[in-house]
Specification:
This protein is an alpha/beta fold. It is built from 6 helices and 12 strands. It comes from Dichanthelium oligosanthes.
Length: about 300
């Protein structure tokens, strides 16, 4: 047996006999399914989706699956809601041994999220990653341009995002697809501008949950961007934090599709709404590519 897929089932725990499947290459389970002891015996495993990790022992076992190319990890606190910091340390140490890993997804509950952010250890494994999706509290310190040299796809869910985080992500030289989701919709990110040499290869960019305007990315940034999706909090324009000029799109030469999510329409005057909508439509009209699919979601 080379493939075992029991995702979509209600199986809570895999039987211990599973570890006898030495030829198993692909194992897909639910993110809540408990894995058996001696997981290290599955030496042929290349694709493990998911691995529920709620103990340092389980995290350490993953380090012996050296053929893994695809891995989904669900970091969980114990049944009493407690979190052992040794779990994250063991997980990072194990990932450091997985030199073939190319795709990694890490999600965590509210308690474990803090541990993901602060985990330290070997990050050499990151140099081979082309796909990374992670759900945590803030941008982990180990996400850096020096380590993620081949990363082309990044999807990240955080509670809050800082301007420094956008700058760090912009320095990922191979990045082509970026999706940033912020769960704290009340966050106010002050107006800022990143350096003009960021996001050199990004062709699709989505920012959800916090106000983003095109002026944050000066001429030279995002030269290959084709699809841009961002959010506007209309109160920011009403208070003067942003102006219509911040919505200019002409400095993004490759743009073909723009989707803008407008929020707070009920909290501002009709004039503010009208000016923002008119400016966005005007920018789409005068852009050399006339971006298709200009949408204003409210």
């Amino acid at each position: 047996l080379q493939t075992l897929d029991i995702s979509g089932t209600a199986i809570e725990e895999l039987p211990s006999s599973i570890v006898g499947l030495r030829q198993l290459m692909r194992l897909h389970v639910e993110d809540s399914t408990r894995l058996p002891n001696r997981l290290r015996n599955l030496t042929s495993l290349e694709d493990l989706w998911w691995a529920r990790v709620d103990s340092a022992w389980t995290a350490e076992e993953l380090g012996h699956l050296t053929q893994l190319r695809i891995l989904g990890v669900n970091l969980r606190s114990d049944e009493e809601g407690r979190w052992d910091e040794r779990v994250c340390k063991a997980l990072v140490a194990s990932l450091g041994k997985l030199h073939r890993i190319q795709s990694l997804l890490v999600i965590s509950d509210g308690v474990a999220a803090e541990g993901v952010c602060k985990a330290e250890g070997s990050v050499e494994f990151l140099s081979n990653l082309s796909y990374l999706a992670i759900r945590t509290k803030s941008l982990p310190t180990w996400i850096s341009p020096a380590s993620l040299v081949l990363l082309s796809y990044l999807e990240i869910w955080v509670v809050q995002v800082r301007r420094e985080d956008i700058q760090v992500l912009g320095k990922l030289q191979a990045l082509r697809y970026l999706k940033v989701y912020v769960s704290d919709h009340k966050q106010v990110l002050e107006k800022f501008m990143i350096s003009p040499d960021v996001f050199p290869c990004v062709i699709e960019c989505r920012f959800h949950g916090f106000t983003t305007v095109p002026s944050m990315f000066p001429p030279g940034a995002m030269p290959r961007l084709e699809e841009f999706r961002f959010r506007i909090q209309l109160e920011d324009f009403s208070r003067g934090e942003f102006t219509a000029d911040d919505l200019a799109l002409g400095h993004l030469p490759s743009l073909h599709s723009v989707i803008v999510c407008l929020y707070g329409k009920r909290n501002v005057s009709e004039e503010v709404v009208r000016k923002v909508e008119e400016k966005l439509r005007h920018e789409a009209d005068v852009h050399p590519n006339h971006p298709m699919g200009m949408s204003l979601l409210q």
